[in-house]
Amino acid sequence: MRDRDLVRRSSPGARLRTLHAQGRLATGYPDLRELLADAGPDELDFAGRVLAPLDPDEVLGHHPETPTVRIAVTGRGTVGDVVPALTGQLARHGILARTRVCGAGGYLGDLADPGSPLYTHAPDVTLCVLDPLTVWDKVAAPWQPIEVSVAAERQRKALGELAATHAACAPPGATLVLNTVPLLHRFTHQLTSLAQRAELGGLWRQFNADLLYMARPSDGLAVLDLEPVTSAGARADEPRLGAYADAHCTAQLLTGYAREAAHLIRGLRGQAKKCLVLDLDGTLWDGVLAEDGPEGVTAAGSLRGAAFGAFQHTVKQLAAQGVLLAVCSKNDPQDVARALAEHPEFPLSADDFVTVVADWGSKAEGVHTIAERLGIAPEAVVFADDTPFERETVRAGVPGAAVVPLDSEPALHAERLLADGWFDTPALTDEDRLRPVRYAQRAARERFEAGSADYRAFLDSLDLRVEISPPYEHELARLAQLSLRTNRFNLTGERLSTEQVRQRAAAPGAVVLAVRAADRFGDDGVVGAVFARAGAGRLSVDNLVLSCRVLGRGIEDATVSGLLRAAREAGFTAVHARWSPTRANGALRTLWPQHGFTTIGGPGTATEIRFRHSLRRLGPVPGHLRLRLRLPDERQPAVPRGGR
Amino acid sequence: MRTVEELIELANTHLGTALAPADAAAELTELAEWDSVHLLRLVALLEHELGRPVPVDAVLQARSLRDIWAVAVGA
After folding, report:
1. B48 is in which domain, residue-wise?
2. Which of B15, B35, B56 is facing A241, going by the closest CB pair?
3. Same fold: A67-268 with A275-418
4. Which segments constitute the Carrier domain (chain B) (predicted)?
5. N or C: fewer beta carbons within 10 Å in chain A?
6. Residue from A554, A553, A562 nearest A532 by CA
7. For the segment A479-519, what is each residue's pLDDT rounded down to a tens digit?
8. SS3 state at A260
9. CATH number given to A67-268
10. To the nearest whole angstrom, how far is the Cα of A372 from the nearest Cα of chain B?
């Protein structure tokens, strides 16, 4: 048996130790995501400690495509201990951290000075860890609650100003992360008057609330709420290490912080999962469908049944925010259909699921089938099942998909499902809320297509309308989301935050366009974006992104043809465009040549091919759709305010 | 924990260091394998291993692994 096989057969913790002992953490980096997926606190701590000293360049040398995030860490007191925890948590999500810890205790200097090492590091994310001594280091005994209130408000204002400096000095799109500050017993109980103690409690919550209200996660300022971390059992302060090393946070608090921060970073990178695939027996209801029959399964009416019902409510809550729900069950399809239809007392009904796979095949295949039906990548799936065998099957057969370990205790299902924030995103767009409806329309469209004699006739019958014009203010977040989340149809893989999209659109000569589509099955809303610039008589397309949901309907061809026509009408003499290969966009290499572009540069650079169109001969806009395309009018502001 | 070697073993197991028994007397600042953030974690590991609190101020001021072991076990 080869070493590698031996390593594969041992437990994840042992495999991690083997990689470390053999000095193969860098070469084995892509395996860490799977190894750490279900790791316990000790294993994660160990992983963080051995990964933190690892040179990111060594990992990138072996695996150049590893997603990397530049992180600056600062804070009040000694907070460097957050680095191992954060490194481990990010590795769990396949993200490589390039971290710089700035001056201990000096977050004011780090953040206020544009020339500080913090800004020199050019962070994507700056973590300013506010420990439990925050504010209290400015309060001298004897004190009254009012003095704490004044110090807290001063602190909050200072943080607001530092956030503004960060927005100006950190790279575009960077995010500053603050956090709420836990209130310690040893401060509240220095007040012997219960009335004053209540006042302190109130004003402290106000301070934390004001911090939370400052959060604009899409626009560069996030605030982590640590109350759920401490209320789940993490003690906040370590008095001895606080007194002797100015390290006031406990390891548990920093671990909880790091976990939340990693989820935030994943969300900022647009890596939120899109679809929740659920098992049925033991996951959504009590009972075994094949044995108890459709009438025999319960999610209400008994103690255990009600616990399943509560879990269904949690799932429904996620669906209301755009998470696509699907079923993958080993059962006969007609039994599943009956069970979903015949239980009006269940919070979830058949309509809540965008697709159902019920058969006796492998669940890994089931997940692939669901992803294919929805037009999403299999790794955008979260799979929840109470059967270990099924989870292992999916883990092995669908690399990159998240697998949620449920067990026989339904009262813990919700906590397990939400533990990793798989669906967290900086802000919800209108599109998110409507996504399940859009996918239902898509399913109706596909059924219709299956019934059409040929594809051409199907397209003709869609009554497809495409409108392309500068984005409205309320569409900017959606454009950012498309740039963050599209993979297959993203010509360069460039990711932009909402703020970056706004800046792009407002820049002189900017041609930023939203692509909207609608057909007889419904309005798809904003489905794509064009990022281009006008200058020197030519239009340069920096990137073009399109939702996978609408591919195959000719919208991509209409966008390119329409853009060429509009460019010629506007008096441009040429259109330039580019394509940079990413893991998923290989099929787009021929997009520009298909529309009459000639290659003018690359692949000498290996990372980009450039194209040019002389606008002499233009292809037709596909005949099955109606296209309206308007370039930005120089007399109008680049980003019009208000609704459509 | 009867010997400093056991302390070294504890560190290697949990912190991923590759410390050798010969490192026991070396200045912590001289040890390439040692990082100051390890010390805070080591306090918790020691207390868990010994089942009782250790004098944190003395551990933090220790200059070698042998010093740490000595103050931790009260030798």
Report:
1. 4-73
2. B56
3. yes
4. 7-68
5. N
6. A562
7. 998 998 888 899 998 889 888 999 999 999 999 999 999 98
8. helix
9. 3.40.50.1110
10. 42
